[in-house]
Design a protein that fits this description.
The structure is a homodimer of 168-residue chains. Chain A is mainly alpha-helical and 168 residues long. Chain A folds into 2 domains: 3-85, Arc Repressor Mutant, subunit A (Orthogonal Bundle); 89-167. In chain A, 71% of the residues lie in helices and 6% in strands. Chain A contains 7 helices and 3 strands, in the order H-H-E-H-H-E-E-H-H-H. Chain A has helices spanning 3-19, 25-36, 43-50, 54-66, 89-116, 125-153, 156-167; strands spanning 41-42, 70-73, 82-85. In chain A, strand 2 (70-73) and strand 3 (82-85) form a beta hairpin. The longest helix of chain A is centred in the last third of the chain and has 29 residues, at 125-153. At the A-B interface, helix 1, helix 5, helix 6 and helix 7 of A face helix 1, helix 5, helix 6 and helix 7 of B. Chain A binds a DNA duplex (30 and 30 nucleotides) through helix 4.
DNA sequence: TTGAATTTTCAAAACTTTTTGAAAATTAAT
DNA sequence: ATTAATTTTCAAAAAGTTTTGAAAATTCAA
């Protein structure tokens, strides 16, 4: 397989993959393109490579920046802005975990704690099941939360090198 | 807060939460409803509680069954089918991980292995960056895969009770 | 300043996904 | 076998999301 073909495949699959993870196709594709581009590239490069409009590129690069996965780069002597992506996959994963934890897990855990406080007849089957389910999810989520915190703080070598040996 | 109100909140939030995870809103809401229902319920119960059409319930319950999260239950003397959800959150999580690994991670790792095999000039910056990125993701994905396998096989108490102590 | 290059915005259009609901199929009791 | 209850299917409608593109805003060099 030639590079051009492989690159197209990678970008397209990464885009499809992204949609399963609540990220939109184009945002994932731009990310993929930046991940395999050794040097920073411009809005126009992205527009041309992916055949998408300027507005679309603008919107999605800003979203990638908000996620902490992409950076604007200023190149001396160049008027236009360039973009580049963090290439270290561990850092990419950590960053995504951090953001999703903040945006999704933390608010959910907060809500569940509130929902556990319902005032109701504890002899009622429905009340009992509700409290049990909600607190079960909250406890599980709390453990996951702790675990993710450790991962976010962990050093790559320590984690992948040593921790995963524990699991084997 | 009263049970009815808390239940409505739980269902609605769980639905919104689901959309961030590639699961459709209604499927997640049905799942939430079943999670807090102590006894099996019918299509009509679901239709009424969530205000959705029969076809919608039918489609989404079948999807939940395909994910291994919900079961059809036959109640003696009843003509209609009843549905019930696995209540053990650890099992729910394990099941979801198992399915997503099979549907998403495994095919992605397979593709990445293929893409690493491109024939190209290794002195070319673009080729080098491509191979480096793809193999970086593949390696990381491979570790995640191993880790998830251990989790899937692990016993709840062993995992939550002991493993998480290691992390602290 | 002025004006050309560049980026940003956002309403409307295109596209995608989900939902509906009525007809068809299935099931089980009589 | 017939019938009534129940479930399934699926084309069309509704809802939701993403993309476009042109106008507005910004930036920077001369």
């Amino acid at each position: 397989m030639k590079l051009t073909e492989a690159k197209a495949q990678f970008i397209s699959s990464w885009g499809a993959f992204g949609t399963h993870w609540g990220i939109n196709r184009t945002m994932a594709q731009i990310h993929a393109l930046l991940l395999v581009s050794p040097d920073p590239i411009t809005q126009d490069d992205i527009m041309e490579e992916l055949n998408i409009s300027r507005g679309n590129v603008n919107m999605n690069t800003r979203e990638l920046i908000a996620w902490g996965l992409v950076e604007r780069v200023l190149i001396p002597g160049e008027r236009r802005e360039f973009f580049t992506a963090e290439k270290d996959i561990w850092k990419v994963a950590t960053q995504i975990i951090k953001e999703r934890k903040k945006r999704e897990l933390d608010p959910m855990l907060k809500l569940l704690s509130q929902l556990e406080q319902i005032d109701g007849d504890k002899k009622d089957k429905n009340t009992r099941q509700f409290i049990e389910t909600v607190s079960g999810i909250r406890k599980f989520g709390g453990e996951a939360d702790k675990m993710l915190d450790v991962m976010i703080r962990a050093d790559e070598n320590w984690f992948l090198g040593n921790l995963l040996k524990i699991f084997k």
